[in-house]
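Minimal example, chain plus adenosine-5'-triphosphate.
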Amino acid sequence: MRLTNVIVRLSGKAVPSMRETVRYYKFFLPYAIRYWGAYLFLLVTLVLSVTMTLAYAWFLKNIVQDAVTHNIVGITWMVGFGIGFYFVNVTVNFFNTYVRTVTMNKVRKDLKTDLWTHLTCLPQSFYNRYQSGDLMSRLNNDTDVAVGAIGTNLVNIIRLPLTAGAAFVYLFGMNPKLSLILLCFGPIALVSATIFSRYIRINGRQIQNQLGKISGLVTEILAGHALVRAFSLQEFFSDKYEREMGKLLTLQTSSARLGGGFRIGAQVAGTAALLWCIGMGAYDVASGVMTAGSLLAFISLMNHLVSPFTGMAQQFGGLQRSMAATERLWEVLEQPAEAAILNAAGSLRGKEPKARALPYSLELRNVSFSYDGIRDAVHHITLAVPAGKIVALVGPSGAGKSTLFQLIMRFYNPASGEILMNNQPYGLLQAPDTRKCIAYVQQEPYLFSGSIRENILLGSLVASDLDVVRAAKQANIHDFVLSLPQGYETQVGEHGVRLSGGQKQRIAIARALLKDAPLLLFDEATSALDSESESLVQDALLRLMQSRTTLVIAHRLSTIQHADVIVVMNEGEIVEMGAHDDLLSRGGLYSRLHHLQSNGLHSGHQRVKA
Ligand SMILES: Nc1ncnc2c1ncn2[C@@H]1O[C@H](COP(=O)(O)OP(=O)(O)OP(=O)(O)O)[C@@H](O)[C@H]1O
């Protein structure tokens, strides 16, 4: 079986071609161009460093020759030269390391920022496919490894052939026969190292994937830590973590084996070359073909001819790892941004909805959508919500209410049909412009780490502190905030004060009030609030609904009381529509849901057959 076939079988992926390598460098080229000055500087220091290598050999040759011929003046000069070379070498090395490190840090920052910006523009469907921990690993680990391709790797890939070329010219001048023999050892080292480097890339990709998997697992366990303890799952997840770490260790052990094999291959070729040349050189000195000084200079320089071959392969090994990591970045970077998907239907640019003056109307015309392309989550939905009206969506779990919200928010494109806001089809509007017109209050409002003031301010980043307080008052959360020792500066979110469901909802309502959008989507909390909290939320919601068009997913009948129309959904379709009393008298799904709730059962989680 061919070696490449074995690799393909092992990794499920073909060995990288030259075209792929060129593609990688093309990808990084814009980053390198951005810092061309630094790269030019590195090139100059490289040339200087190669010159210093030759100068050292020249120094050795001459000082030994002067010693053999008892030339004391010559020795003194050579010592002076030696000290001068030494200082130049140290200075060049310092600036090379400094500029290279700083440039790499800048490129790393740019790459991470680009990846992050792209991630924030990706559609909801992308986030459904990837674990957040895996994405974090791509952002943190893979970018770090990927940058190696244009950092140390690139510098060495230029430096090593340059050194080898210069060393060969110099050695050839001293002893052509020995130099040509020496040259034969290079390809031997290169071939063995190239074979290893291919495996190294596959192993590198597997390690990066495994790191992503572990990161995903850890994020998940940390997010669900309360559940882990509640169900005493510590041991189960510890075992799972240990298993995944074990797999990582196996891959890392393979990596160590490959690295060791790689180095041994290089060493065998290097040592054989050294022994051969010392032996042949000694004969040449004995027969007067070569001076002792030249042999010493030869030996000091010969390593610079053979080691670049192994060094190059080593660099390719590192490059392979960088490529493996870059592949994982591409997987994300090649995903079309949300704007590209949502506006794929046409590049027409409709009029951007103006800043809010009056509530907007909303219309869904024969809208269907499927997450998996097999089963419709919503099917032929036609619904007109006149400006300023309140429409309540009710229905059993899985009826398609949240999906409808996601379509209105443009997290997905309908498979068929169209949505119109204020009589403008979505296809003519940019997604961010559409969202600017919508205030969305989620079922479980998310609070970011930061103060309460900062969290409310997310509704409108340009709002003043006075506006924040006004919104909080309207949302019935102001008094509660003031009762906290640090008031609006109280830290909430993951590491902050824990708030109740009702308090979080009211902060979210304050956020929505601050946004002051003409259209409101309110997803009522399913978890029951205590009656005081419930009335505070209801009161706040009423204010929020004023002079807005509202679509509310209602899990409790209290919200429905104010609705102009109640839309009943089941299995992705609208099955009933009308006023509360009218729907009750029909004796259909709504009346059954109402009956269940009146008897103390929660409608949102009851499967009711239509
Ligand atoms: N991200 C998703 N990927 C695949 N299928 C999904 C996704 N989200 C929802 N679904 C499916 O789409 C259908 C409609 O779900 P949806 O969440 O819209 O119902 P719902 O009426 O809002 O339910 P609930 O009241 O429980 O929130 C369900 O069959 C659900 O399993």
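Residues 234-286 form the longest helix (53 residues). Residues 18-337 form a domain with the ABC transporter transmembrane region fold fold (CATH 1.20.1560.10).
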